């Protein structure tokens, strides 16, 4: 009888936890999704729009790097990647990558302290590639969202709203990254920054090439007048056509990208498989004086091949 009550209690507890899980999945997650971008979430927490704008500006890039002319490009890369990195986090990530590559070259391959000379540039290159990929992914998502955001602005303008109100509609309706970026644009204009300068700041923060068209259209219209709704609608149609052409080009060049990926992964994969099947297979190479030059030459040739394939399958539309 006691065992039966234990079973009843376990069934009751499982049903209770299951109902709680369904509540969180169906109710709470839906209410949280209503706050669709970072700016709206900060606005609900801070209540002061100036503090929201200041927080978003601090999250963009590494400000200390912007003061150094030689490292300003790194500040722009971090800012356009959308990653929340300050100087401390950036140094921690670089140090971690150096330690990881040193374990591979210095310890696992048995190169010793000389592996640090390879680990440092390899870590810097890996960090640069990670930032570039994050930037490309964010710009691609921004490009996908931009025509829809322009359509929202156009509908607001045709409904009789001024440009700032129509821009605010897009900032509230669109998810990140474009929702927050348009919100920053709106806040900068609202706090007294000239519209032309604010739009140029948007282009600098995102780095998406099509934003130059938007910047030119808005700046010319603000100076000479004209129907901004028609201009933005034409720009939206142009961006959609370019996106279709870009997707068609990517489909045609997919074989080249697959070949580049396979040729890059194949040497490493063969090395790992052989080292797993026969751990002593590369034993004679560890202490050989030609091992390091051969490794450097192989990495250089592999990098050159990847660069050539990249240039063959990636070009502007």
UniProtKB/TrEMBL annotation:
- Keyword tags: Cell membrane, Membrane, Transmembrane, Transmembrane helix
Type II secretion system protein GspF domain mapped to chain residues = 150-274
**Which positions, given as ranges, span the membrane?**
6-26, 90-108, 114-131, 260-278, 290-310
Entry keyword annotation includes Membrane = yes
Q: What is its main location?
A: membrane
Q: How does it sit in the membrane?
A: Multi-pass membrane protein
A GO CC annotation given for this chain? plasma membrane
UniProt-annotated location(s): Cell membrane
Name of the protein in its database record = Tight adherence protein B
């Amino acid at each position: 009888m006691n065992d039966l009550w234990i079973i009843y209690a376990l069934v009751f507890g499982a049903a209770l936890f299951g109902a709680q899980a369904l509540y969180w999945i169906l109710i709470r997650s839906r209410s949280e999704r209503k706050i669709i971008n970072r700016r709206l979430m900060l606005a609900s927490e801070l209540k002061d729009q100036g503090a929201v704008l200041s927080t978003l500006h601090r999250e963009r890039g590494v400000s200390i790097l912007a003061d150094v002319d030689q490292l300003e490009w790194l500040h722009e890369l971090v800012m356009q990647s959308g990653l929340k990195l300050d100087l401390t986090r950036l140094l921690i990530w670089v140090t971690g990558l150096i330690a990881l590559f040193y374990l591979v070259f210095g310890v696992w391959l048995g190169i010793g302290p000389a592996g640090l000379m390879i680990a440092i540039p390899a870590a810097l290159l890996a960090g640069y590639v990670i930032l570039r990929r994050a930037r490309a992914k964010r710009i691609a998502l921004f490009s996908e969202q931009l025509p829809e955001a322009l359509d929202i602005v156009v509908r607001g303008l045709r409904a009789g709203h001024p440009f700032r109100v129509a821009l605010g509609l897009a900032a509230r309706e669109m998810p990140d990254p474009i929702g927050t970026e348009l919100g920053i644009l709106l806040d900068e204009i609202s706090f007294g920054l000239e519209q032309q300068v604010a739009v140029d700041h948007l282009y600098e923060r995102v780095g998406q090439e099509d934003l130059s068209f938007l910047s030119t259209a808005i700046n010319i219209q603000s100076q000479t007048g004209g129907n901004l709704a028609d201009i933005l609608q034409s720009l939206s149609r142009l961006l959609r056509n370019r996106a279709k052409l870009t997707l068609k080009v990517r489909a045609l060049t997919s074989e080249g990208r697959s070949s580049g990926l396979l040729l890059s992964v194949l040497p490493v994969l063969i090395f790992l498989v052989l080292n797993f099947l026969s751990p002593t297979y590369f034993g004679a190479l560890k202490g050989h004086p030609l091992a390091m030059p051969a490794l450097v030459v192989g990495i250089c040739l592999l990098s050159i091949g990847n660069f050539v394939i990249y240039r063959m399958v990636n070009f502007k539309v």
